[in-house]
Amino acid sequence: MGVRITSTLRPRWRYIAFKVWSERLEELDFDGARELVIRALSDVLGPVGMGRLRPWLMRWDEELRAGILRVERGQESPARAALSLYREDPELGRVFLEVLGTSGTVKGAERLLSRVPRWDVEEVDGRTFLIYENGEVDVVEDGRIVAHASYEDPLPD
């Protein structure tokens, strides 16, 4: 029979929803996302700082390139900062980890993920475009995003 831990001794968790933006459009599976998060946290915080967070990748959506990271309560700010400050990855090139928000429950973090716009790939006249459901467009050349446009900021001719 196992030892039962009272609720006051059990660790409390917070959940950080984040999205990965990178200049390379390679598929990023769960293992790749986990390694990316570990590299980001350890590069910015170091091994001791990362150990304090007790990070765990809970969910990963390959299509959205977004996920939910579990960290210990009270460590949300260092985790958010570390994810936001990570800019250069050896596998993905220039990268930006956008923190969508934090929540006390997985369900709340999933609600944050549901706000991420979906996108589709279109090819027109030999050029590749990523078209988002909110009307934004990215221009892709050689597997890298080279330009971005929206209704407020159209593409140059």
Summarize the entry for a quick read:
The protein is α+β, with helices and mostly antiparallel strands and 157 residues long.
* CATH fold naming of the largest domain: Alpha-Beta Plaits
Helix count, DSSP H or I runs of 4 or more residues: 3
What's the alpha carbon Rg, rounded to whole Å? Answer: 18 Å
The major β-sheet equals: 5 strands, antiparallel
CATH class of the largest domain: Alpha Beta
Low-pLDDT regions: none
| Number of E strands | 9
Order of helices and strands: EHEEHEEHEEEE
Structural class: alpha+beta
Mean pLDDT: 87
Measured between the Cα atoms of the first and last residue, the distance is 71 Å
Shape: elongated
CATH superfamily of the largest domain: Ribonuclease P, Pop5 subunit
Helix content estimate: 25-40%
